[in-house]
């Protein structure tokens, strides 16, 4: 995919940060070692990690040069590294690998997460948050409309959700240490937008990207008009013009 747009992603900064804080609150005491912000993006979680564990070195890993440039501006990371999270491995066993809304872009979690857990120092933790919103209208419409309007380009007949149900992660990770897995539905209130439906504004910098990157400009306009109309029905405006947008997220912590 093309590089990320940090400004578009940061538009809903507080809503995207809250799950990271909820995950952070459940991480147990850490041993000596570094903290790895895996898929750090623009570094929005970095200051919170540094505040929570001020004595530990903070490292940021991300595949996006644009996001890493923004993260560097925060001045809190001891090191920032451009790398695909799926190929990354640490130089030394870290105390914590923390990943907020990144690993759902990578396949084969059954192998990936045990691999990350195996990198940890004894007593260290892997803490992960991922969206599990794929059955909701906001995400289902993207798949359904793309397959319907451009069937030769979007063959989703064998599509599977990239994030599994919680029990599958608990079963996979339990042999590796102490495991805590849970889900939370956040009812997000999105402010009115002059530039389209608020839910579309939320998804355009994340879930919508793989679809729009395969469309010509005229196709994208047609797709967007259909998507906006469907969103208006699924997520009607409140009296003040805002929209209530339920969003499901999965959390897991495994401690060696």
What does this structure look like?
The protein has 256 residues and is of the alpha/beta class. The protein has a single domain (6-255), classed as 3-Layer(aba) Sandwich (Rossmann fold). Helix content is 37%, strand content 20%. Strands 3-2-1-4-5-7-6 form a seven-stranded mixed beta sheet, sandwiched between helices. β2, α4 and β3 form a beta-alpha-beta unit. The chain is globular. The chain starts with 5 loop residues before the first helix and ends with a strand.
| Rg for CA atoms | 19 Å
Query: pLDDT under 50 segments (min length 5)?
Result: none
Main beta sheet: 7 strands, mixed
CATH fold descriptor: Rossmann fold
Which architecture would the CATH scheme give at its second level?
A: 3-Layer(aba) Sandwich
| Tally of contiguous helical segments | 10
- Which range best describes the helical content: under 10%, 10-25%, 25-40%, 40-55%, 55-70% or over 70%? 25-40%
Mean pLDDT: 93
How many domains, as an integer?
1
* Sheet with the most strands: spatial strand order: 3-2-1-4-5-7-6
> Based on DSSP secondary structure assignment, what is the total number of beta strands?
7
CATH class: Alpha Beta
Termini gap: 34 Å
> What overall geometry do the principal axes of the alpha carbons give?
globular
Category by helix and strand content: alpha/beta
Q: State the CATH superfamily name.
A: Vaccinia Virus protein VP39
> Helix and strand string, N-terminal first?
HHEHEHEEHEHHEHHHE
Strand-residue proportion = 15-25%
